[in-house]
Amino acid sequence: MRIIASDYDGTLNISGVSQENKDAIAKWQKNGNLFGLVSGRALKDIFILKQRDKIEYDFYIAATGAIIANSKGEILRSTPFSMSVV
Question: Which residues contact 21 (CB under 8 A, 6 or more apart)?
């Protein structure tokens, strides 16, 4: 098994997620590999994108790395930022 992830804005999503990319992700996963989505966005916003784009992700790294979640959106690790960092 291999694991890869992609940033969303400006990487996976360039004026929408292409069908070619969706097919490549599905093929990767069908071959027993994991594909994750990485974004500076909040986890709830990533789930909106997931539903819109109709892509199944195996894991999420959200909020610029502050949240790691499984495919169901269950938070596996969370590192809150202080307001001074924000």
Answer: 12
Mean pLDDT by runs of 10 across the 86 residues of the chain is 96 94 98 97 93 96 93 92 69
Task: Using the structure block, give the residue that is written with the tokens 């784009």.
Answer: 53
- Contact present, 60 and 67 (Cβ < 8 Å): yes
Is residue 34 within 8 Å of 3, Cβ to Cβ?
yes
Radius of gyration of the chain from its Cα atoms, rounded to whole angstroms: 13
d(CA 30, CA 14): 24
| CB neighbours of residue 43 within 10 Å | 18
**pTM of the predicted structure, to 2 decimals:** 0.87
Q: Quick count: other Cβ atoms within 10 Å of Cβ 2?
A: 9
How many residues can be counted in the chain?
86
- Cross-strand partners of 38: 7, 61
